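Morning - fe (ii) ion inputs below, output right after.
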Amino acid sequence: MYGNDFPGPDQGPTAGLLGEVEAAEAALRDAARRDLQAGRGAAPDPAGADEATLHDYFTSVIAADQKIEPRDWMPDSYRKTLIRQIAQHAHSEIIGMQPEGNWISRAPSLKRKAILLAKVQDEAGHGLYLYAAAETLGISRDELVEMLIEGRQKYSSIFNYPTLSWADVGAIGWLVDGAAIVNQVPLCRCSYGPYARAMIRVCKEESFHQRQGFEILHVLAHGTPAQKAMAQDSVDRWWYPSLAMFGPPDTDSAHTAQSMAWKIKRFSNDELRQRFVDMCVQQADVLGLTLPDPDLRWNDDRQAHDYTQPDYAELMRVIKGEGPCNRDRIAHRRRAHADGAWVRDAAAAYAAKQAERQEERKVAA
Ligand SMILES: [Fe+2]
Ligand SMILES: [Fe+2]
């Protein structure tokens, strides 16, 4: 039975996190209705006010947990940070289609194929929401795609690892989408409105992704000994790269403090990584699989699990382009972009023609 062969939806792997997404959505609606701090007037006019007044107002909006919107004044560094982060996120969604796309034609049944197709299509959709959110900051999608294929902007290091078996599709859903959710749920409360709203939609879909991955692994882990071994091998290979998805440890993280002050980021890399570990331990138990860390154990004092850190030197190598699949991923993306040129040209020609006709109609009327 699909979706019900492990604890019911309320206790499912992402039940708590989904609750947080819903709370963030409610807070967003609330914030839209609430006035800024009492006694504060309307936003200063960017054309007339000096920078200190504008900055003051920007800070008060963030302090009041209101959203910064595209037409609002914002410091250049806030805009640049958001463009970098949202673009990197959008690129990750698009490049992330490749490792799993690799298994669409080899999924073990029609049903598995349909589910995987839907999942990979969702990732394309996430890329589109996010490129659209980045465009509200004054950069075009063309520029962003250019920066990706020229290697001037990054995407998540995790997608530079190969998918060697069908179980990898399960491990990606469970661990990679799982880590993505833990990272992204707090972004539903990000101070930049378009990003926060995109993240609410993305997180709801990601929870389906995590669930489908969990279910694939659950079936394999309860199948033949060979299937269980395949599932275990996948978890062994994906565990540490998934932990590395949260980025370098807080002591080495360049962007954390400022992003937290701007309420773009709400938790540090290490806090989120810890949360992910604690969540996975319980779920691995339900799966009947082992997390490949002999030092993983509950720490009563910290009320959290102690665990082995991923190899951050490896993370840096992969980020710099030396992961197992970096070259393939970018080469594939370049090819797909070139192959799609005629579609973009045709769409642009169609839009121009439509605009021309509308103009003619206006003149005639
Ligand atoms: Fe996604
Ligand atoms: Fe996903």
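Note: The first strand starts at residue 297 and ends at 299.

O.
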